[in-house]
């Protein structure tokens, strides 16, 4: 396998650790050497890495995220059930005092954290059964995203030194996240909060700790206190659809002048917002406020982010969205074909993966505009045929 440049370069450095790839045992030895160089005691490092193993199930999970190929309406219906909504409302009451503290201290609304709590672990019911250290080292060794996971290995080592992680027994998600709202080790170190006052940060067993830590993390990522994040709207039939998408921002007054209206209540005053049409101009429509962009610091999937943000509004009383009658979309295989055609036309769509991400949407919108089609960033069989 051809190594990335950084890994190939490391091969020629005496005693240097591979950035990724190569023999797994040699890679682990490199991590151990680097940990000692960072100032960790050799005995502690040996103990931390003593039982580390490569986990092929982690790599399988990383490669098999086909659920994100589902369109928003399908994805949201799959994740948002009546039971999940009722339990969210019940937890809002049960932990009312905690949510009051979070809102006062970090400015994050309860619906936002409840939605993350629901989607990440079903309110703490299933937090993942992957060995955390094995997952992080496996993903660091893998050459797909080592720059993301390698620092987390050393953060996990720091948690071990603090007595907050056991490399043999601590488990979580396949990507190394831990606890009820699934936070990576570095995020726990930087944003962990003792919400229940017992002197420990226990994100796996204490809802107060997990929720307070999640609130602090969102604030650190730029959450703006007291501001909305997403709002369902109605749009006029004659709107210039090329103005939709995250790349375009207008004031709410400008959107109102174009005929955009809140489906319930009124638009937030004095804020910039983007018009989102997840399944085109015939489907549901939302205004995304500045706080919506913080969601992408938590998860990069547009469909996941929009669904989590929408569920947060539902948990705070927003009505069920108007699904509309969107045009037929494309299958995962068809989106891959579309991405190849867009790439051939000079568009940067990232990886050909069958997932309609931000770059693919932007390219779709540009081609729709060029071809005289409604430029709403929703790819249809008509667009695919025209390309």
Helix content bin: 40-55%
* CATH superfamily grouping of the largest domain: Bacterial muramidase
Total DSSP E strands: 7
Number of domains: 3
Which sequence of SSEs, written as H and E, runs from N to C? Answer: HHHHHHHHEHHEHHEEHEEEHHHH
Give average pLDDT, whole number.
92
Short account of what is shown:
The protein has helices spanning 5-10, 24-37, 42-49, 56-63, 72-79, 82-94, 96-106, 110-121, 132-141, 146-161, 185-191, 207-220, 252-257, 302-314, 332-344, 358-371, 381-386, and strands at 130-131, 171-172, 230-234, 250-251, 261-262, 272-276, 286-288.
Q: What is the fold's blueprint, element by element?
A:
Elements: H1 5-10, H2 24-37, H3 42-49, H4 56-63, H5 72-79, H6 82-94, H7 96-106, H8 110-121, E1 130-131, H9 132-141, H10 146-161, E2 171-172, H11 185-191, H12 207-220, E3 230-234, E4 250-251, H13 252-257, E5 261-262, E6 272-276, E7 286-288, H14 302-314, H15 332-344, H16 358-371, H17 381-386
Antiparallel strand pairs: 1-2, 3-5, 3-7, 4-6, 6-7
């Amino acid at each position: 396998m051809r190594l990335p440049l950084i890994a190939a370069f490391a091969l020629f450095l005496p005693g240097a650790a591979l950035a990724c790839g190569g023999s797994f045992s040699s890679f682990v030895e490199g991590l151990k050497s680097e940990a000692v160089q960072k100032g960790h005691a050799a005995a502690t490092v040996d103990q931390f890495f003593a039982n580390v193993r490569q986990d092929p199930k982690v790599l399988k999970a990383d490669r098999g995220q086909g659920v994100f190929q589902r369109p928003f309406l399908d994805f949201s219906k799959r994740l948002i059930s009546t039971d999940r909504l009722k339990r969210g409302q019940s937890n809002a009451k049960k932990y009312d005092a905690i949510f009051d503290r979070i809102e006062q201290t970090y400015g994050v609304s309860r619906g936002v954290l409840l939605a993350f709590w629901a989607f990440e672990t079903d309110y703490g019911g299933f937090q993942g059964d992957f060995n955390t250290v094995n997952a992080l080292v496996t993903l660091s060794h893998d050459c797909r995203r080592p720059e993301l996971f390698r620092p987390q290995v050393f953060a996990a080592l720091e948690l071990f030194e603090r007595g907050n992680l056991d490399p043999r027994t601590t488990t979580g998600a396949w990507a190394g996240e831990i606890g009820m709202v699934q936070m990576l080790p570095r995020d726990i170190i930087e944003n962990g909060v003792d919400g229940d006052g017992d002197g420990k940060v226990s994100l796996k067993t204490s809802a107060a700790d997990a929720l307070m830590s999640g609130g602090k993390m969102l604030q650190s990522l730029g959450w703006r206190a007291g501001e909305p994040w997403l709002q369902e709207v109605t749009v006029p039939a004659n709107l210039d659809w090329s103005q939709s998408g995250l790349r375009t921002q207008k004031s709410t007054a400008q959107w109102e002048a174009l005929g955009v209206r809140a489906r319930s209540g009124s638009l937030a005053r004095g804020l910039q917002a983007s018009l989102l049409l997840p399944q085109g101009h015939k489907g549901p429509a939302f205004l995304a406020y500045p706080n919506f962009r913080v969601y992408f610091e938590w998860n990069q999937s547009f469909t996941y982010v929009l669904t989590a943000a929408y569920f947060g509004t539902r948990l705070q009383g927003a009505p069920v969205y108007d699904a509309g009658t969107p045009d037929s979309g494309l299958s995962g295989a068809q989106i891959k074909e579309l991405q190849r055609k867009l790439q051939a036309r000079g568009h940067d769509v990232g990886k050909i993966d069958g997932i309609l991400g931000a770059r693919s949407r932007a390219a779709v919108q540009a081609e729709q505009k060029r071809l005289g089609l409604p430029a709403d960033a929703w790819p249809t069989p008509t667009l695919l045929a025209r390309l």
